[in-house]
Amino acid sequence: MLILITYDVSTSSAEGRRRLTRVSKKCLDYGQRVQNSVFECILDTTQFRRLKYELEELIDTEKDSLRFYNLGDKYKTKVEHLGIKHSYDMEGPLIL
Amino acid sequence: MLILITYDVSTSSAEGRRRLTRVSKKCLDYGQRVQNSVFECILDTTQFRRLKYELEELIDTEKDSLRFYNLGDKYKTKVEHLGIKHSYDMEGPLIL
């Protein structure tokens, strides 16, 4: 299934930027970075549970906000894009 | 249906911050701001088409990225949250 992960962290501090980098690296194990703090991950139920646990360890739960949206298996028609497509990860797969 | 809107804009420039404010105001006509540049809107098909058109007029399509995710009507079990819940809009409805 496609899990969309949105991460709200203040990048005005070095700690915030570090956490964003760590969260990004973790999410990239399972998918791609489609915006600066938005990640699309393909996960099964077990991977999703593990990823949530791992991300909770990386973020500052007193300062940051992390949201997960389950788009299911038939997600291709559920995503639309306007504007530029940034290349956050040159080695990653193409953005849908 | 719930449409999740994620907006990637550089807020290091005054123009970028202005565009974010305008996009935010437009999205708040239909829903709530759950993260700095993430909006959850409840829309029917006609409203969704109109909102996409209106947002395209507000953003800089050469610089910004705007993505739409359709969570459908049965979205309540599809959203999970970790960490802090920012109050971006004090007058808005509570975050799920």
From TrEMBL, chains A, B:
One of its GO terms (molecular function) is endonuclease activity. Gene3D superfamilies: 3.30.70.240. Keywords: Antiviral defense, Endonuclease, Hydrolase, Magnesium, Metal-binding, Nuclease. Its cofactor is Mg(2+). The keyword Magnesium applies. NCBIfam families: cas2 (TIGR01573). Homodimer, forms a heterotetramer with a Cas1 homodimer. HAMAP family: Cas2. This is CRISPR-associated endoribonuclease Cas2. It comes from Brevibacillus ruminantium.
